[in-house]
Amino acid sequence: MKEQTNKKNYESLKLGNQLCFPLYACAKEIVRQYRTPLAVLNLTYTQYIVMMVLWEHGSMTEGELGRIVHLDSGTLAPLLKRLEKQGYISRTRPASNERQLVIALTKTGEALKETALSVPEAMSECIDLPREDLLELKRLLDKALSRMDSKQANK
To answer: Has this prediction a pTM greater than 0.85?
Structure first.
């Protein structure tokens, strides 16, 4: 009887009982599949995410960008330096607040948006699920992320 109780105690440690593992493995596989279409743009997946935010919202501070893409400054700063070196963005410090770093698209970065239109189409078959399931999965992940953000903000 005690052995049976001990087995139940360890059920929470089984990989097959974890939510985090299929999320991690699926995300890792999706990022891997992005490599080919993003090679045309000379972007990594994380750089692509940053570019999508800038294409959508325009110029913003590094802090604002970091909050949107869920990256800290230590991760974001080298990524932005590489994008600047590629000629896709500019990083400037306004005279009014030299502690801020404003990120803006260059003409080259803005023009890259046209080429990037091929990426969503190339990735559309990445997850072989019906459209309704994909939309539900996105809704649930957005909801979970929002709740985690709220919890973090309240700390």
So the answer is: yes
Is pLDDT at 6 greater than 70 in this prediction? Answer: no
Interatomic CA distance for residues 37 and 119, integer angstroms:
6
CATH 1.10.10.10 fits 19-121, yes or no: yes
Measured CA distances, 34 to 31, 42, 78, 115 (Å): 5, 12, 21, 15
